[in-house]
Amino acid sequence: MAEPVPTPPARGDTPAGFALAVTVYVLWGFLPLYMKLLSQIPTVEVIAHRILWSVPIAGAVLLATRRTQALAEALRTPRMLGMGLLTAALISVNWGIYVYAIQSGQTLDAALGYYINPLFSVALGAIVLRERLGRLQRLAIALALAAVAVMTWEAGRLPLIAVGLAVTWGFYALAKRSLPIGPNQGFMLEVLLLSPFALGWILWAQATGTGAFGGTARDTWLLLGCGVVTAGPLILYANAARRLRLSTIGILQYIAPTMVFLIAVFVFGEPFGEAERIAFPMIWAALALYSAGMLRGVRPAG
After folding, report:
1. With pLDDT > 90 as the criterion, what percentage of the chain qualifies?
2. Is it the case that residue 301 has pLDDT exceeding 60?
3. Alpha helices, H only, the chain
4. Domain limits, the chain
């Protein structure tokens, strides 16, 4: 469920942008239900199909909107190809961690990771880009670190899935800043660069008799559908981001991990133990502080 880096926001919110964004975050919120249906298929194979079947969808959108020029230029520019390879590697690892979390019954950790995402990105901006943090932002980051410490203390180890999702997404967002093309073109570049690896893995799995594609009609259609559930929301999001303020997007992004959290507890029946009962309210408090600080920062003067 890794969403793209927002495009420069519109001056104000529009009803169409709000409706699109809510739709996208709800779709991402339901994504664990789809990925759970693929639990019998190895994670790497699922990721390979997510990549491969996203290519025709993303390509069709670029052709329909006549925005292929920037992509062609990126493919001819070594520096942009290098940055594209880096962002593609980061997002594929992020997808892999997410799918593995769902398949292995650790959906709560995935929800925690996506709650931590914005706070880690803010901290990364302060460390790498020397961006200044407000008092509420610093307090929010401290609370998030304390929540991770609680989970670590209880489990005797770091919540690797949650931390892995936050770290890979944070560095993906940071690297994406150096890729000066639109979100649709950037996504197409990433899946194009990853597609030879994805195709190679799928062909190897099929040749060795371990591939799920073509095994049963159910699995085949679910794998084909990976392109739609991956590329569709990302493309819709790119259109929503242009019609909303960044602060609005920042608030709406909590819809998805909240739905993932509810699905983990009430649909998948994952245990919600003492550590989770302490850590998750701390994260929610941190996000409330972060959101308050963000809204204060965009409040009109006067």
Report:
1. 39
2. no
3. 15-36, 43-65, 69-76, 78-103, 107-128, 135-155, 160-176, 183-207, 217-241, 246-252, 255-262, 274-297
4. 15-297
